[in-house]
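# nightly structure sweep
# worker-07 picked up a monomer target from the shared queue
# config: single-sequence mode, recycle default, output format = structure tokens
# input follows
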Amino acid sequence: MCNSARETTAKSAADASVNIPEDAAARRAVKPVICYPNDSLPAVDLALYRRARASAVKTGEVLIPARDAACFEVPAGQFFRISSVEGAQVGDLNLWNRNDLTERFYSGKTRALHGTHITAGERMWTSLPHLRPMATLTGDTLGWYGIDEYGGSVHDVIGTRCDPYTGNLLAGSQYHHCCHSNLTRALADHLGVSPSEAEPHVHDVLNVFMCTGFTRDTGQYFMKASPVRPGDYLEFFAEIDLLGALSACPGGDCSAEHSSDAAACYPLLVEVFAPAAGALEGWASPQVNGYDGSHGR
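# output follows
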């Protein structure tokens, strides 16, 4: 029996076993509610950040090679910018507390608080039990994109990162330049440890410039050609001392491939900027979450 016949038979059997209730339409018509209303989150003072950014001077840069990754550091109170410099290219970003790698970017909670894709005025949050802002997005030249007719948008926190384990599972491949491996090598080199020691610190990413969504009929994660062009950037303010790692995805603009050498790929540029003394008057690095940690005991 061919695969399509098996699928049809299985679907028919499943359909036959489902008793659709008389009030099914009414149950499906129940209006949704927002799980985490975010209007009580600490306010983002974009005006302050932008005034400080206007006084900032460049202190360093890292060019991320195509199909590879590199680390960079940003002190609290400074800015960093990720730019497309040669061609349409997406990047996978990991962030950690530079002084404690157990505090790292928490994509799931960022998604729950802000949505599937983030832009200027929204934040990247750290893992439990810390749960505080680690970076605030302050500039986004793709902010015009919005949500397209397919439900796609840019800068997602829904994809995990391309990795060799899923590639092996689906295709039996042994590909070593997917984003997970790139990030692992970059972190290992930066810390002076082995890849096996670095790998547990690699985590779900912010997909910078990547255009993604979920299909409406099957609910599957999709990607499409990124609208990014040379000169576009995403800029951040470091709320705490940061260690970052950025991978220039082997998928290039992710219009077709993401775990092979087939796509055209380009470098990405990370630049760090320090504002003038006194430009952030009134700002303070956020404290860790105020929950007492007792868990009822």
